[in-house]
Amino acid sequence: MLWWALSIFFFWLGLREIYYGFIPRAGFDSPNDVISKPYVLTTFVIAAAFAYMPLRYWAFERFLTEKAIILSESSKAHVHCNTVFDTMFDRQVFAAGHAQIETGRIVFQHPWCGRLMDHLDHPEKMTREGVFSIQIFAHEAMHIRGERDEAKTDCQAIQRYARAAQLLGITSTTLAKENGMFYYTQGYQDRAAIGGMTGQYYSDQCAPGKALDEKLPDSTWN
Ligand SMILES: [Zn+2]
Questions:
Q1: What is the Cα Rg of the chain in Å?
Q2: Which residues pair with 107 in a beta bridge?
Q3: Domain boundaries, the chain
Q4: Contact status, residue 71 vs residue 163, Cβ threshold 8 Å
Q5: Which residues of the chain have pLDDT under 50?
Q6: CA neighbours within 13 Å on the CB side: how many for 83?
Q7: For position 145, what pLDDT does the model report?
Q8: Transmembrane residues, as ranges (predicted)?
């Protein structure tokens, strides 16, 4: 909202300059002699710069929503990227993301949408945050698909990680699976070691051939 407000303000400054080039100001008989083109150009450029960020995120939310609907097999799915302010006032401020099964609403906390955006530009870098950001997307989509149990949800997401990565534009199957296996062999196993709250996301049955294996044809661990 802040970015939009600043953008509108600078846009208004530019428009006002043009307006007074044709219409006299209050108390004046004639309009301004000249419209300052550099001034108008500068204000419009600043206005566009402030609008760029929210527009970029708006487009990314639409993109994520479209993919979440496919992955979750639920037309209710929709994705929101929290700003810093949204995150501060979010009751689940310490979770990287959360989902509400009833409404289909998926929320990414700040700065996880940005991390996902960066990662999709360079998935080959396989940064920890980047790899995790796709897992968050897949995990929340599995909640919307109907699963509430955290361990089962995370395991379903792991098996669909490669599918999710490809939906999001990582065209190479090999790279999509490498990303997923990076999460499975490192981040996921860390959850078991850390235990506590984090451990609720882990099950030793989440492995090829074990109880939680859904034997998907495009499974990450195939
Ligand atoms: Zn969850």
A1: 23
A2: 80, 98
A3: 55-199
A4: yes
A5: none
A6: 12
A7: 98
A8: 40-59
